[in-house]
Design a protein that fits this description.
The complex is a heterodimer of chains A (318) and B (225). Chain A has 318 residues and is an all-alpha fold. Chain A has 11 helices and no strands. In chain A, 69% of the residues lie in helices and 0% in strands. Chain A is globular. Chain B is mostly helical. Chain B has one domain. Chain B is built from 9 helices and no strands. In chain B, helix 3 runs parallel beside helix 9. The model of chain B has no long low-confidence stretch (mean pLDDT 84). At the A-B interface, helix 7 and helix 11 of A face helix 1, helix 4, helix 6 and helix 7 of B.
């Protein structure tokens, strides 16, 4: 644990919490413009959140404490992941504890809690959404672990900070087959885990196709706002992980105001570029059938396995 | 060419070979399968060209040019023509509708086959531990195994032809990586053989479709006069 990591952690938490709704707004705006609409503007998610936070908190009859603490837990796990992963600075606030297993487990815990809360409501849609989300989660986690593991073979450590530092010291590493295959696998997993097209449609309210939206159907007011905020932040964390692992340039390696400013700006622009690209790609895609989602995720798992395999095969003498 | 650049480009070409093999196994539409097959041909030609530049071997350079002409241009063109003809006949959807093993399971099987390829090619790698090309042999072997798996699980004739060619791409890659100096005559003979095989299979597929109205090879169960 060092000063750089702690400063970075605080900065990351502030940037991600404040910037995540803007990222969602940016993605909606890109999508709207490409579809020929004017769009509500980048700040609309923040205005929605402000409106929701001012409302009275209501919970359905017969729900237990799980329903009430799930939004808090979801935000808490996401903020923790945002603090410990290396986004703005190359050091981590939690030191070597912030390895890939911890971060992946934190993110999975948030999803699992939300699924429990959805079952807790006892409605048909909640249970259906939870079952779908857990199916996707069970297929996503192995891919996520295996593809980050492929990167850690090259760096010799599973600590995310060490992987980022190794990539910084040897930029050619990014173009190795292991890294490229892992990048594709991670991109597919990011799309699946954050509920974007083609796995889930974030804009739908058609009951039969919902996954994430079906789970949060019973939430209203401040709780709903927390969940919306947390979903934006998760998207931001995943895009940030992609950016830090594959294009770590600009990340702050020293504790000077200039380096931190450059690191923050680089992180924000990389995540914004990734989000805009994702939104632009979504315009050209249709949601695939739920039964074909395992196919997509098995494909990304295979790419991740190939990434691990080639990182072992191709480490011959140079 | 500096050694580090050479190793990196070699690894990249081999990674592209494996990735395109996975994509061929993944996709169902014939048009997409043929497109990725063409991309794989380019990767294979790049691999041969790299080895030629590294070894200052003009004959290997000729092999690279031949591989490019055959596997990135001629064979995809032939396959596309067969596909266009089948589409004109419009007798069936132009995709692999029911492979014997579903796509999810075959992708997981491909993961196992990749690890198997690593295990079986260790003796080959151990023969020349100093050569970076030898370390890429498992990737070529994985392409061979994935191609063979696709060959036995696909039902439609066009998909089987593509799987056969995928396997042949893998064999060529392993050949290039192990010897690094395939004689021009051997490569020429193999290439012409492949071209001929595709020609024969294409005629056969055409006849099959004319006679039975389908190219599902599972329907060929009994003999007729």
């Amino acid at each position: 644990m060092n000063a750089l990591g702690i400063t970075g952690g605080v900065l990351q938490a502030v940037v991600i919490t404040g910037g995540a709704p803007l990222l969602t707004g940016l993605m909606r705006q890109v999508r709207a413009r490409l579809e020929g609409r004017a769009g509500p503007g980048v700040g609309q998610p923040w205005r929605d959140l402000r409106k929701q936070f001012r409302k009275e908190a209501v919970t359905p009859d017969g729900t237990s404490e799980i329903f009430r603490i799930a939004p808090l837990l979801l935000v808490a796990t996401t903020v923790t992941a945002a603090v410990v992963a290396p986004f703005v600075t190359s050091a981590s606030a939690a030191g070597p504890m912030a390895d890939l297993f911890a971060v992946v487990a934190l993110l999975a815990m948030g999803t699992a809690t939300l699924a429990l809360a959805a079952i807790d409501t006892g409605t048909a849609f909640g249970g259906m959404g939870a079952s779908r989300e857990v199916t996707i989660l069970a297929l996503v986690e192995p891919t996520l672990l295996v593809s980050i593991f492929a990167l850690s073979v090259g760096a010799g450590s599973t600590s995310l900070a060490a992987i980022v530092a190794a990539t910084l010291s040897d930029p050619a590493r990014v173009l190795s087959p292991a890294s490229l295959l892992a990048a594709v696998a991670l991109a597919v997993v990011t799309v699946a885990e954050t509920g974007r097209i083609p796995v889930d449609n974030p804009a739908t309210h058609l009951e039969l196709t919902m996954v994430h939206e079906a789970m949060i159907l019973e939430y209203a007011g401040p709780d709903l706002a927390l969940i919306e905020l947390a979903s934006s932040m998760r998207l931001c964390v995943f895009l940030g992980l992609l950016a830090s692992l594959f294009t770590p340039w600009g990340i702050a390696t020293s504790l000077t105001p200039a380096a931190l400013a450059v690191g923050t700006a680089a992180f924000a622009s990389k995540v914004a570029a990734g989000g805009a690209a994702l939104a632009a790609a979504e315009v050209f895609m249709a949601k695939i059938r739920l039964f074909r989602v395992p196919e997509l995720l098995a494909g990304s798992f295979l790419l991740a396995v190939c990434a691990v395999a080639s990182s072992y095969f191709l480490t011959g003498p140079n | 060419m500096p050694t580090a650049t050479y190793v990196e480009l070699l690894n990249l070409a081999c990674g592209a070979l494996l990735a395109t093999a996975v994509l061929i196994l993944w996709r169902r539409q014939f048009a997409a399968i043929i497109r990725w097959f063409g991309v794989q041909g380019v990767a294979l030609a790049a691999l041969a060209a790299l080895l030629a530049i590294r070894g200052h071997d003009a004959r290997l350079g000729a092999v690279a040019a031949g591989v490019f002409a055959l596997r990135a241009v001629a064979l995809p063109w032939l396959l596309r023509r067969a596909l266009a003809r089948a589409e004109a006949a419009a007798l069936q959807p132009q995709r692999e509708t029911r492979p014997l093993v579903n796509v999810t399971a075959s992708l997981l099987a491909a993961a196992v086959l990749t690890l198997l390829a690593y295990a079986v090619s260790r003796p080959l790698t151990a023969l020349t531990p100093d050569s970076p090309a030898a370390h890429a042999i498992p990737l070529g072997m994985a392409v061979v195994l994935i191609g063979f798996f696709a060959l036995v699980t696909r039902r439609r004739a066009l998909a089987q032809v593509t799987s056969f060619l995928l396997m042949d791409n893998g064999i060529t890659a392993v050949g290039l990586l192990t010897t690094a100096s395939t004689s021009l005559i051997v490569e020429l003979g193999v290439s012409l053989d492949v071209l001929l095989a595709v020609g024969v299979l294409q005629v056969l597929t055409g006849r099959l479709r004319e006679t039975f109205g389908s190219t599902d090879l599972d329907e060929l169960r009994e003999l007729h006069d």
